[in-house]
Design goal:
This protein has 2 helices and 14 strands. By secondary structure, it is mainly beta.
């Protein structure tokens, strides 16, 4: 009788262990259903593949990205740059206090080749894209091809004069979105970000044409060198009320003079 009870107890334990392993494997496998989806719940990523063939043995890259009203900065050095391409992944929240990511939302990535001794920028490449997987991976290539509206193509050098304490003057037309309560504005130039959350209704009251103007001053020299004529800059605006078509819209321009004010219309 004792042997029979022991056999039954062992059998129950094996069944419990088997069920536990099955449940665990199901949970684990659900995290790997699709290679375009990442593992953390409530996150998505922008994965940039950087073509390095136009660079001469780069030793350091600063890579920046902005999506869904959020920003990221990463550096590539050493073994990261030993082949013809480098890869970097930026993870962002699907939802924050201002906006929830959706397909067609816009984002951008810029890579800066840096002199490892002086830490000064040698060249840069930027690209703008649209979110395709709002809960997964969004792959984009940078640093190759010809110049296009949304891409600089290969890495570009900058030889213009210095711009001291430039102001990025962001213009945001809202005649079609006058019910927007809050907006997040993100700007970037020379690898440096600035962001503001603005009370849209208050600013619209001061506007005659339903267009908000937000000046953002860059009064510090970026870590990779002074801002110059020829540097590219971005402005992105985010709010759920901007949907459709996009909850985040981005625009870019290249500085074309050495005066202080540089205008950009963000949507």
């Amino acid at each position: 009788m004792e042997n029979k009870e022991m056999r039954n107890a062992n059998l129950k334990n094996k069944i419990i262990i088997s069920i536990s392993l099955l449940v665990f494997s199901l949970i684990l496998s659900s995290s790997f259903i699709n290679s375009n989806h990442i593992f953390a719940a409530g996150k998505f990523s922008v994965d940039a593949k950087i073509d390095l063939k136009s660079l001469s043995h780069p030793e350091k890259l600063k890579v920046v990205a902005s999506a869904n009203g959020e920003t990221g900065i990463k550096y590539l050095t050493g073994d990261d740059l030993n082949s013809n391409s480098g890869t970097v992944s930026f993870e962002f929240n699907e939802k924050n206090d201002i906006v929830s990511v959706g397909s067609r939302d816009e984002y951008f990535v810029c890579a800066y080749a840096i002199d490892p001794i002086t830490n000064q920028m040698q060249s840069y490449s930027c690209v703008e894209g649209n979110i395709e997987n709002s809960d997964g991976k969004n792959k984009i290539s940078i640093g190759s091809g010809a110049k296009k509206t949304l891409s600089t193509g290969t890495f570009q050098t900058v030889s213009g004069g210095e711009i001291n304490s430039p102001t990025i003057n962001v213009w945001i037309p809202l005649s079609d979105r006058k019910d927007t309560k809050q907006l997040k504005v993100v700007t970037m130039i020379k690898g440096e970000f600035e962001s503001r959350i603005i009370n849209t209704q208050e600013l619209l009251k001061k506007s005659n044409d339903n267009t908000i103007n937000l000046p953002i001053v860059y009064d510090k020299v970026p870590e990779i060198g002074a801002i110059k004529e020829g540097d590219m800059f971005y402005a992105c605006v985010s709010a759920n009320e901007l949907n459709p078509p996009e909850g985040t819209e981005c625009e870019h321009r290249v500085t074309s003079h050495t005066f202080h004010v540089h205008n950009i219309v963000a949507r």
